[in-house]
Task: structure prediction
Amino acid sequence: MEITRRDPRLTILKSQKIKEACQRGESHFKLRMMEHHVYFWLKPEFKSPAERSIFEKALAGLFEIPLVEGGRWAVPAAVLPRPVIDNSWDYALSMTFHSVEDHDAYQDDADHHAFIDASKHRWEKVLVMDLA
Result:
């Protein structure tokens, strides 16, 4: 299986080890990777374009932490409404880690704590859902 520049998996692939495994047709399950998903609901006073820009820069900075293999932040997709869809959140963060141990170390990382300390006053609610 060849990975091309247009392959959507490249948004979550940073390490050569992962790229090579995908080229061999191995899934992230075989690699024992995990995904960390975080949903943020911002307080009304932090929803202006200027405030959103500040928060977006802070989210992007989390991907500079070496333990993070890849991922992205996003806003709700403009999909057709259905009863099972909750798009009430303002931002989501999806991160990939090599292992649960790397994820756990990320939780204690000083830059992760700096993000929380600098941003927690902006959100009303945070929801975390992790995938093994």
Notes: The radius of gyration is 16 Å.
